[in-house]
UniProtKB/TrEMBL annotation:
<keyword id="KW-0813">Transport</keyword>
<dbReference type="Pfam" id="PF25539">
    <property type="entry name" value="Bestrophin_2"/>
</dbReference>
<keyword id="KW-0812">Transmembrane</keyword>
<protein>
    <submittedName>
        <fullName>UPF0187-domain-containing protein</fullName>
    </submittedName>
</protein>
<keyword id="KW-0406">Ion transport</keyword>
<dbReference type="GO" id="GO:0005254">
    <property type="term" value="F:chloride channel activity"/>
</dbReference>
<feature type="transmembrane region" description="Helical">
    <location>
        <begin position="35"/>
        <end position="58"/>
    </location>
</feature>
<keyword id="KW-1133">Transmembrane helix</keyword>
<feature type="transmembrane region" description="Helical">
    <location>
        <begin position="64"/>
        <end position="86"/>
    </location>
</feature>
<dbReference type="InterPro" id="IPR044669">
    <property type="entry name" value="YneE/VCCN1/2-like"/>
</dbReference>
<keyword id="KW-0472">Membrane</keyword>
<dbReference type="GO" id="GO:0016020">
    <property type="term" value="C:membrane"/>
</dbReference>
Amino acid sequence: MTPARHHTRRPTYPLAHAARQKPRRWPLVLRFAKGAVHGIILVPVILHSLFTVLIVYLDRHVTGNLGLPTSIVPSLSIVVGLMLVFRNQTSYDRFWTGRNSLATIGTSVRNLTRSILVSARSKGVNGTPLTDRETADTEKVVRVLVAILYAVKHNLRAEYNIPPASGIAGEGEITTAKAEYYALLPDGLRGFEDQGLGLPLQLTVLVESYIRRGFERSWFHGPQASQMTVQLNNLVDAYGRMETIRTTPLPVAHLIHQKQVLALFNCVLPFATVDDFGWWAVPIVAIVAFTLYGIEGIGVQLEDPFGYDKNDIKMDGIVEDTRQEVMVLLDEWKAAGSGNGAHGGMFD
């Protein structure tokens, strides 16, 4: 009777890295640092407040006649509101599409891993055990599937730094996260990023080649191999959508006009409020500028959701959770193949 294996793993649970792990200490209304856009809107709010101070001072102590009719505010606010709504809807659509595309990639990796490990159990119809070469081939392709997640993440962040074929990452220092990523790549892999070939697409070629070999070994029947290819195509398609988001900014004409209209509205507002509110126009303009520039700042952060900002997609955690799942499946598959798996395991 084979004794049960004792696993030594870090304490974890599904989605442990992607989910928020600690409760909020302060209500969101009192938060001014982590996750907030106050840092990027502070300068324009201060400038508009100082401009309002100047207008009120000139109106009260110099010219005495700088006020404009308040009816000008509603007409301008409609234009500003429409532009900000368009900007935020467009930016959030990019964020949501990026998140769904990453989910599609993770789902494809899960499906392919499941199909590969369940099917790669025997050779042909006679049930011949896998050779060491076939076992290593299967383990390599599962690691490549996980490496695709890392490659997608790094390419979207413009971190093109695949190690050379020797496995040494050049002159730069290798971080722990990068070392885990490099360990997933096949030995001797040569990158072609300097020639315009992205590593994610290059790694999918290795997976497609394995599917063909599995079909020739009778591990996969025709429809199953075809479905696995569909999963791989879905993965590449999802990555293409993420690339489109990353490489297609909003038209510069829209950005310029939005900035100008926003600045114009906040510059006109002091003239429309100085007669009725006097020095109270300063905090009023500051609040309006804080609100409008804050909405615009949110759109700026969501426009490219693949970076390291607090409001970006949690790509590091999502990739780590998927890696943990796949590697546990791979460990169980290897244990079952070596006869060390506990009775009733996944691959019995």
